[in-house]
Design brief:
The protein is mainly alpha-helical and 259 residues long. It is built from 10 helices and no strands. Helices cover 66% and strands 0% of the residues. Helix 1 (23-35) crosses helix 2.
Length: 259
C-alpha cells in the first residue's frame, strides 16, 4: 500500500472557493468577538434582556401572594409547576447563571477598560445626557449580585431562613420578611433593580439596534414604566408583610397530605 493511503487529504473548498471554517477558526472568531468592546456590549445587552424577561415573570408569580385566603395554595401550585420538569428547571437555572456570569464579567471588564483609557478623571463632571441610573450601574450591579446570593441562600436553599419549608413559598416569604433587616435589604435591592432596568433595558435596545437614536436621550418612558412596575411589584410583598397585611397561612392541602 502506498504511503499516505487512507489520508483524506486537504479539505475541499466550499462553493465560494474557500475552505469551510474549522473549529479552531470558529473559536478564534468567538474570542475576537468577546474580546472587543462592542462584543461585550452585545453580550451585556442579550443577557440583560434575558434577565428582564426573568424578573418580569418572577414578579408576576410573586403577586399570587395577594390571592387572599388561597394564597398559600396558589404559591404552592406555582412552586410545583416550576418543578414539573426538573431537567428543564435546572437547564433554565444554568442558563440564568450563565447570563449573570457573562453579564457581570463583561460589565467589570468594560469598566476596567474605561478607567484605563482615562486614568486621570475629570476635575469637574457635569452630566449632560446621563441619568442617576446610568451613573450608578456598577454600584447597583454589585448590590444586585450580593442580593442574588443572599436570596438563593435564604428563599431557595433555606440555609439562612429561620423557618423554611420546602414547596411552601408563601409562608417562607412571610416568615422571611418578618425580619425587618431582611425586608429592608430586599426593598433596597429592588430599588437598585428598578434603577438598573431604567438604563439597562434602554441601553440594551440601543446596542442591538432595536431603538433608534432620539433627540431626547433622557426620554425613556417604556423603560421607566417597566422599571417602576417591576420594582413596586417586588417591593409590595415585604412591605405588606411588615405592615401586617400578609400573615402566615396553613400549608397547602396537597403538601399536608404528603406529610
Amino acid at each position: 500500500m502506498a504511503d499516505g493511503a487512507g489520508d483524506p487529504g486537504p479539505v475541499p473548498p466550499g462553493p465560494t472557493g474557500r475552505s469551510p471554517p474549522t473549529a479552531q477558526t470558529r473559536m478564534n472568531a468567538l474570542w475576537k468577538f468577546w474580546d472587543s468592546s462592542l462584543g461585550k456590549k452585545i453580550v451585556m445587552a442579550v443577557t440583560g434582556l434575558a434577565g428582564v424577561g426573568f424578573v418580569v415573570g418572577h414578579m408576576v408569580g410573586n403577586l399570587q401572594m395577594f390571592a387572599g385566603a388561597g394564597a398559600a395554595d396558589a404559591m404552592h401550585a406555582y412552586a410545583k409547576l416550576l418543578r414539573t420538569s426538573m431537567p428543564l428547571l435546572w437547564a433554565v437555572r444554568a442558563g440564568l447563571l450563565a447570563c449573570v456570569v457573562l453579564h457581570v464579567t463583561a460589565a467589570l471588564q468594560l469598566a476596567a477598560r474605561n478607567r484605563a483609557a482615562r486614568p486621570q478623571g475629570y476635575q469637574q463632571v457635569t452630566p449632560q445626557a446621563s441619568t442617576f441610573a446610568s451613573r450608578t450601574m456598577l454600584l447597583g450591579g454589585i448590590l444586585l449580585v450580593t442580593f442574588i446570593v443572599v436570596h438563593i441562600l435564604d428563599m431557595t436553599l433555606g440555609v439562612a431562613h429561620p423557618n423554611f419549608t420546602h414547596l411552601d413559598p408563601y409562608n417562607n416569604l412571610v416568615f422571611g420578611f418578618q425580619r425587618p433587616l431582611m425586608a429592608a435589604f430586599y426593598v433596597l435591592a429592588m430599588a437598585a433593580l428598578g434603577a438598573h432596568l431604567v438604563h439597562g433595558a434602554w441601553a440594551s435596545f440601543r446596542t442591538l439596534g432595536l431603538r433608534k437614536a432620539s433627540e431626547r436621550p433622557l426620554h425613556r418612558t417604556i423603560a421607566v414604566a417597566v422599571a417602576i412596575i417591576v420594582a413596586l411589584g417586588f417591593m409590595s410583598v415585604p412591605i405588606a408583610v411588615v405592615i401586617g397585611a400578609l400573615q402566615p397561612q396553613g400549608a397547602a392541602s396537597e403538601m399536608q397530605a404528603s406529610r
